[in-house]
Structure formats: C-alpha cells, structure tokens
TrEMBL record:
Signal peptide (from-to): none
Superkingdom of the organism of origin: Bacteria
InterPro entries for the chain: GAF, GAF-like_dom_sf, HATPase_C_sf, HATPase_dom, His_kinase_dom, Sensor_HK_TwoCompSys, Sig_transdc_His_kin_sub3_dim/P
GO function term, MF aspect, one: kinase activity
Alphabetized SMART domains for the sequence: GAF, HATPase_c
Keyword set, alphabetical order: Kinase, Transferase, Two-component regulatory system
Domain Histidine kinase residues, every copy: 308-405
Organism of derivation: Pseudonocardia yunnanensis
Protein name: GAF domain-containing sensor histidine kinase
Pfam families reported in the protein's UniProt record: GAF_2, HATPase_c, HisKA_3
Keyword Nucleotide-binding appears in the UniProt entry: no
Length: 409
C-alpha cells in the first residue's frame, strides 16, 4: 500500500509513554478537590514526561479577568498565589485571550506578547510553550506553560500532548474551583450567621435602651399630662388645655421615635414602594451629597430587596465616612435575567489593581466589617460584589444577582 507509513518501534514507545503520562494525569486529577495540590502534581508530571525544566499552571479567577499561578515546579512553588496576570497581558494572558497555543523558541524579549515577571526569572529560560486549558463544560479554565533552559523547537506533537493534558486538567480544576467556592460560601454563611446573631443581640439591646429611655419615658410623661388634664378639666380648663397640648406634642414625638425604631429593624418603604422607592428614600439620608438616581421599577423577591437595600445603605455610609466625595450615583436595573445595583462616587478612591476586585479579595484588616458584610449579603442571595477604584477617580461598588435566585438557606 502506498502513502501509508507503518508505525515504528520508536513511535510505539512514544505512544506508550504518552498514554502512561495521560494515565498519571488522570490519577492526579482524582486525588482530591483542592486546586493548588492538583496543579502542583500536574506540573511535576509534565516536567518529568516532557523533558522540560519548569512548568507553571495558571488558573482563571472567578471573575474571568486574570490568571493566578496555582501550581509550579521548584524553585517557583513558593510563588503560588502571588503571581497574577490580567487577561491579555504576557504570553499566558495572550493565550487565555485568544484560546490558542503560543510557542517562543528563543529571544523572548523580541516577542511583543512577552512580559517579564521578575519572580519567575524568565531570563533564565530560553524556550517556552503555552497552551490553553479548556473544558466543554467550563470553557477556558487556565493556561499551562512549560519552559526550557536549552533552546528547544517544540513540535506539533509536543503541543498536541500539552493540549490533551490541558483538557484533562481543565475538567478537574473546574470541579476543584466549584468545590472551593462551595466551601467558601458555606464558611461565609457560617461567619455571616454568627455576625447576624451578634448584630441582632446588639440591636436588641440598643432597641431596648431606646424604648426604655425614649418611648417608655415619654409614655409615662404622657400619662402624667393626661391625668393632670383630667383632674383639672372642670376646676381649671385653661390648665387642662395646656396639659392636653403638651400630651399631643409628646404623642407626636413618641410616634416619630417608634417609626425610627421600626425603620431600623426593617425599612417599611420597601413594602410600599419596592426597592426603587427604598433607594430614593435612602438617598435623602445623605443631604451632604449630590445624589443622581437612575432606577428601574421592577419588584424583586422580598429577601433580595432587603439585601440590596442594606448593601446600598452600607455603601452610602462608606462614601460619607471615607470617600470625601461631593457626588454619588445610584443605579438599579434588571436586564437579561440579571439584577444590577451600582453605587458610584467621585471621591478620593484607592488602588484596586487592574480590573478591580471581588469584595472577598480584601484582607479583613483592609476591608473592615462593612465590605465583608456587603459581600456576604450579596452571596447569600446568589450574587457577587465587585469594587473598582483608582486614586483620585472615585469608587464604584457593583452587585449583580440572578433575577430569580434561589431562596437563601
């Protein structure tokens, strides 16, 4: 038969080695649900099987904006979690953006896609290959990079093998990320439950003090004035009338205090006017800021409206306390199955890096209870909270929630 090449013993040996590697990858991906140990195990297997010197496994973050180093072979395993690349930046960022492999044989600095990362010592390595890690279920999950000290022409077979590995690893990494999100959400729910209980107790003590010191005392005084009016109604009508006037004033004050106390427990405006009305009312509580409102009139499930109202309330308080702003813009809309709430100010801002960050990315000491509270409220109704800011350019807090979220536990 012409035109058909019979496989040689070398071909069969290569095929056996390749199958053995893929089997080892499969075993590694079934070892556990954690992202970093999985990525580290895969990196070691790839280096051993492909005769390369170092391997980096970059995983796409939950927001889909950047890659984080999740696994690396020594001496770079200490950089795991510390190296981030925005999509489109560097060779790995280019591969993530375009969804196709990239090979640099030598002279990396001449390639416009290459961005040196001091911590990864790219200058020590001559050649590199980078392939996307994709799965049918999740799409792009990350990028796989291998580097060699000695110049190497990566063959089509090399790229095919790395791509096959990438597809195997992508499914396992996607499952590991889902597991990590579930664990994080469960922990957030536990923390939030603890905070809610503590906040409830604090609120109950405050409310009990307000009722005792305010409403109860005024009702006692109201009773004295009414008794005085009743006792002098015939003997001294003028004095009785004066007591009734004072009683009326006390009654009005007591009603106002009761409304304030009830509003602290649950904003009644949501029952009557929905979230748009609640946000409009909320904007009037910050008279020192010029508030622009762009609000849709859609009604949402009760627990979602309360969560978004409290997030907006906390965000406006943060603007007042920290932003040194003169203007704030409040937006609420429901489009294409997604609820979106935005609070933007023209204040001093701060550095959040490229593309902003999730509220959960902040360290506790940097974020304070307010940011964590807003993030956890968003997550409890199935949403996410992100923050975009730059020094001197204000801050935007954005909450997105599915329009028909599951009822929270």
């Amino acid at each position: 038969m012409t035109g058909t090449r019979r496989p040689t013993l070398g071909d069969l040996a290569d095929l056996e080695a390749e199958n053995a590697l893929l089997l080892a990858i499969v075993e590694a991906t079934s070892s556990g649900p954690d992202v970093e140990p999985l990525a580290a195990a895969v990196a070691r297997l790839i280096v051993e099987a492909t005769a390369t010197d170092v391997c980096f496994v970059h995983v796409l973050d939950d927001a889909g904006r950047s890659l984080t180093l999740a696994g690396a072979t020594p001496p770079f395993n200490g950089q795991v979690g510390r190296v981030r690349l925005p999509i489109g930046t560097g060779v790995a960022g280019w591969v993530a953006e375009h969804g196709e492999p990239a090979v640099i044989v030598d002279d990396k600095h001449a390639d416009p896609r290459y961005v040196p990362i001091a911590a990864l010592r790219g200058v020590d390595y001559t050649s590199m290959a980078s392939v996307p890690m994709t799965s049918d279920l999740a799409g792009l999950v990350g990028v796989l990079n291998v580097h060699t000290v000695v110049r190497r022409e990566f063959t089509a077979r090399d790229i095919r093998l790395l791509t096959s590995i990438g597809r195997l690893v992508a499914g396992a990494l996607h499952s590991a990320r889902l597991h990590r999100r579930l664990v994080a959400r469960e922990r957030a729910n536990e923390r939030f439950t603890e905070q809610v209980i503590a906040a409830q107790e604090t609120e109950r003590r405050r409310l009990a003090g307000d009722i005792h010191d305010g409403i109860s005392q005024r009702l006692v005084s109201l009773g004295y004035h009414l008794d005085a009016a009743a006792g002098t109604l015939r003997s001294d009508p003028a004095y009785a009338e004066q007591q009734l006037i004072l009683a009326r004033e006390l009654a009005d004050i007591t009603v106002d205090e009761a409304r304030i106390a009830i509003g602290g427990l649950r904003p009644p405006v949501l029952d009557d006017l929905g979230l748009a009305g609640g946000l409009t009312s909320l904007s009037r509580t910050v008279p020192d800021l010029d508030c622009e409102l762009i609000l849709g009139d859609e009604r949402l499930p009760e627990h979602v409206e309360i969560a978004l109202y409290r997030i907006a309330q906390e965000a406006l308080q943060n603007v007042q306390k920290h932003a040194r702003a003169t203007r704030v813009e409040l937006r609420f809309a429901v489009r294409e199955g997604t609820v979106r709430l935005e609070v933007s100010d023209d204040g001093c801002g701060f550095d959040t890096g490229v593309g902003g960050f999730s509220g959960r990315d902040l360290q506790p000491e940097a974020s304070g209870y307010g940011m964590r509270s807003m993030t956890e409220r968003a997550e409890l109704v199935g949403g996410t909270l992100t923050v975009r800011s730059r020094p001197g350019s204000g801050t935007t807090v954005t909450v997105t929630v599915p329009a028909t979220p599951a009822v929270p536990i």
